[in-house]
Amino acid sequence: PQAKYRKDYQTPDYTIDEVDLDIRLQDHQTLVSSRLTVRRQGEHNEPLRLDGEALKLINIELDGEVLSEHRFQVVNNQLQIDDVPEAFELLIITQLDPANNSALEGLYKSGGAFCTQCEAEGFRRITYYLDRPDVLAVFTTRLQADKDKYPYLLANGNKTDSGELENGQHWVSWHDPHPKPCYLFAVVAGDFDLLEDSYRTKHGRDVALQLFVDKGNLGRAEFAMRSLKAAMKWDEVRFNLVYDLDIYMIVAVDFFNMGAMENKGLNVFNAKYVLADAKTATDQDFLNVESVIGHEYFHNWTGNRITCRDWFQLSLKEGLTVFRDQEFSGDMSMRPVHRIQDVRIMRTHQFHEDSSPMAHPIRPDKVIEMNNFYTVTVYNKGAEVIRMLHSLLDEQGFQKGMQLYVERHDGQAVTCEDFVCAMEDANSTELRQFRRWYEQAGTPVLSITESYDASAERYTLHCRQHTAATPGQKKKQAFHIPLRVHFYSDSGELLKLTSDELKNDILQLTEEQQDFVFEKVKEKPVPGLLAGFSAPVKLDYEYQEKQLLTLLAYSQDPFICWDAAQQVYLQAMKKAIAAGSPVQLSQASLDALKHKLENQQSDPALVSLLLQIPSEESLSGEYDVIPVADIHRVCGELKQLLASELEKELKETYSSCHPQGAYQFAPTDIAQRMLANTCLAFLANLKNPEITALLERQFSKADNMTDELAAMQAAVHANHTSADNMLREFAAKWQSNSLVMDKWLATQASAARSSTLDSVKQLTSHGAFSWQNPNRIYSLVATFTHNLAQLHREDGEGYRWLREVIVRLNSSNPQVASRLVTALLQWRRFDEKRQTLLKQELKTLQELPDLASDLYEKVEQSLQ
Ligand code: HT7
Ligand code: ZN
């Protein structure tokens, strides 16, 4: 496989203005006739080269004349035609086998329905085309299929005509007036239940909203519809962005490699981000539906109307759209909970990626397989970069920048640079150094010390930033870092410190070393550093326990408050690992946590989050060489310690804060369930009859999935005697609901038992599992890869089994295989024995004769 480099970008030699597709859908012999209006760009004699993969070419005509074989050739997945005129019409007929398309790219069958996935480069699996995002064309699509099996025939844009044919077939045609790149093309054909609604935009356009779900699931689609209308409204109010077609369709499918896809006017969703009701979905599932529905809708402007010039610019649409969906969720409810969850993703997954062989800037420079770059770096760090711009420019300045960006670039395919320029120009500012966030990979470490001169009443923060080398980038230059700071007195009052450099609580770090001096400071303050997680950096400041407890008790910034608790836990666990002794918490820390529990009423969700200890995975991020067994030990010990020390308060909180009455998806109820279930998870470690009764009662009496699942997870994760029984009952009750059974698979894959690998292996033969469906594979196998101690077993069995799984998926679904291999790449971070075992599995993969480009890229990069 060949690498592509960002620096090599060239405008296309030809462009396509119109595409007329006629698709006759059949399981194994779908015929696609594509009529293209092609135009040469610039002066040159280059041949026309169209991308195509896994296609059977039936016919080509140029301006109505059949092309004989010597006029074209197909080499290396490209159809090449020499000596073409300035402008011409090309007709290409290809044949596809969607029923045998297990990679779920291009046109495939999901259950009984046909559907497509074209981002990033799937359209070339449907027909020969200029499959790149800077070729924008107007699409017309005619679909034909059996009417009984496929009563709904859907494509982008507006429906223009339809008709019946003999032999039970029917057809529908669609026209999308907005020029678009082919990655936004979609068709769906199937038999669904349909939920309909409408939305009137602030411009007075009535938009028909249609949500298609598998038969029998209408009741579980209502929340998604509500979320869609909320998203449409929110984008009008906060971003002044208004929908632009008369119809917006969402189809939920069971077989999908990712979360959802923003195809123009016809979103295709993984069913798990659409279907939600109290009995089968947890509070978190509801929140995920809201956020993914929002995300795909927001792409209509940030992605579809203004798209990417090339795939290196992916973060232009994804970072920005994640930022927008995060803000949407925060404005809808529980902003602090969302923010802390976003930070957790950054710290556990993105920081991990930054320290891995696949580390890349949010705008990568080199790509072999584009599918490998739909990453936490491009998405979540990309969103943090946008958030920093938002902090530096504030809401008003940021919105001015957005407005200019939309005015300038509507209908274009543009770059991250264009976005930054719009922000600069709208605010008459310069962001020269800020651009390094797009250029450099890696997580900066921000080391801060302080000094206080009581007699001069002067307080100084000494800041130093350093970013370790990442593959291909040895020396890093200083980043422009917005550091939000709050200061407290020892007794917890917010202090107003002033300095010329402090604006809106933000210090701007631009040098490798920088001091910030504050005058007239009457007492040495406790600094609340990086408030709101104002930059995607690791903070290295030696907090004393007393300072952390002040922040835990008094910080008005929920992130700082939560982080103070995390630091208390991390310090205790690291100390125990270093000393080889049991984990201990000081009485003062325990008292502080007790106090939080006793006063949980003001914010039960935050109390729930700050009680939760760092995961084994996130603790491993603290080490260059990961001490697997020690990490596993101290995490277990800390849970046990908190459970026994806080038993009384946990029990009282559990019984007082569970919402009364029937389930409601409402922020106050969600927050209470979060806290009650966190208490239960700790208590399950105590294994006394009273707790057993609590667990079993909640499991059997729950009227909602949040509580039912929480009880089962608490039992399984604490290795409680009730666990096996609950797993059995749960499976018997939910066997016919695959999305619920995914939770059952994931619960077992995340168990901290030495038998987990054996159970996981056995579960691959269970009726609830399938090697064809990514949701099943992610629930069982991907969850297992995050189970640190079980994947990294000393005997290497975890690695061996994972490699076997990857070999199997290499041929059926390389995208999924590639997501799973990530767990093996970081071999340098383990002890020698594990390094040898890991490398051996990677080498076995490397030698596979038909290794997919997705895996090739990661394995090579890791072994280099
Ligand atoms: N823009 C979408 C990306 C996507 C995707 C990419 C590769 C392979 C399959 C895929 N399915 C969806 C999703 C999004 O960010 O909204
Ligand atoms: Zn997206």
UniProtKB/TrEMBL annotation:
Biological source species: Aliidiomarina minuta
Reaction(s) the record says it catalyses: Release of an N-terminal amino acid, Xaa-|-Yaa- from a peptide, amide or arylamide. Xaa is preferably Ala, but may be most amino acids including Pro (slow action). When a terminal hydrophobic residue is followed by a prolyl residue, the two may be released as an intact Xaa-Pro dipeptide
Domain Peptidase M1 alanyl aminopeptidase C-terminal: residue ranges: 546-864
EC class name: hydrolase
Protease found in the keyword field: yes
A GO molecular-function descriptor: metallopeptidase activity
Membrane-crossing segments per the record: none
Cofactors named for this entry: Zn(2+)
Domain Aminopeptidase N-like N-terminal: 61-184
Family (UniProt): Belongs to the peptidase M1 family.
Domain Peptidase M1 alanyl aminopeptidase Ig-like fold: 442-542
Annotated Peptidase M1 membrane alanine aminopeptidase domain residues: 223-437
Protein name: Aminopeptidase N
Keywords (A to Z) from UniProt: Aminopeptidase, Hydrolase, Metal-binding, Metalloprotease, Protease, Zinc
One BP annotation, GO: proteolysis
Protein task: Aminopeptidase N is involved in the degradation of intracellular peptides generated by protein breakdown during normal growth as well as in response to nutrient starvation.
